[in-house]
Design brief:
CATH class: Alpha Beta
Distance between the termini: 8 Å
Shape: globular
Number of helices: 6
Order of helices and strands: EHEHEHHEHEEEEEEEEEEH
Structural class: alpha/beta
Strand content: 25-35%
Radius of gyration: 16 Å
CATH superfamily: Class I glutamine amidotransferase (GATase) domain
CATH architecture: 3-Layer(aba) Sandwich
Strand order of the largest sheet: 2-1-3-4-14-13-12-9
Length: about 200
């Protein structure tokens, strides 16, 4: 079973719908005991980092999430949930993240042409950089749907797949059992479903 962390911020219902379509057992919860017993964790997220990290702090679940991660439980951050995995975020200030992945999250603006729009929104080709169990069902010419204004600058060793938007955009990252997807798999048609299916199989 996958525990989807319920902290009041997230693209929760679309993720649940995608997992249900794949017949992957899941539960939306903030119950520590359920999270401890779950086979894997999904950390969703949409909106501002400051609000998200505060909401997560208010649940009191951050130490438990870190404990589960340290114990090897598969953890998947989606969109803002991926950005929460990093050490720092510079969205309208400077904020401390979960620190489960090395690196920082910064605005696109200084790094791309002024001709390009922010947020980065739309379909982009996903370029696989490294083998990962998440890519079990992916083929060539896979396209995914992004909506974001900030991107991760992390350890190059953790970059599993990327897209181009004037610069290389980390699309999928991972280090051991900690994984993150910047785009919206639940809105990325068959490609997104294939990624979620692979994650579901990783926790069995």
């Amino acid at each position: 079973m996958i525990a989807i962390i319920d902290y009041g911020v997230g693209n929760i219902h679309s993720v649940i719908s995608a997992l249900n379509k794949l017949e992957i057992e899941n539960i939306l919860t903030a119950d520590p005991e359920i999270i401890k017993d779950a086979d894997g964790i999904i950390l969703p997220g949409v909106g501002a980092f400051r609000d998200a990290i505060k909401s997560l702090e208010d649940t009191g679940l951050i130490p438990l999430i870190k404990e589960c991660a340290a114990n090897g439980k598969p953890l998947l951050g989606i969109c803002l949930g991926m950005q929460l995995l990093y050490e720092k975020n510079f969205e309208d200030g400077e904020y401390i993240g979960l620190g489960l992945l090395k690196g920082e999250v910064k605005s696109f603006e200084p790094y791309i042409s002024k001709d390009l729009k922010i947020p980065h929104m739309g379909w982009n080709k996903l370029e696989i950089k490294k083998d990962s169990p998440l890519f079990k069902y992916l083929g060539e010419d896979e396209f995914v749907y992004y909506v974001h204004s900030y991107l991760a600058f992390g350890d190059p060793e953790d970059l599993l797949a990327s897209s181009e938007y004037d610069i290389e955009v980390p699309g999928v990252v991972g280090h051991n059992n900690i994984m993150g997807i910047q785009f919206h798999p639940e809105k990325s048609s068959h490609t997104g479903l294939k990624l979620l299916k692979a994650f579901g199989e990783m926790i069995k």
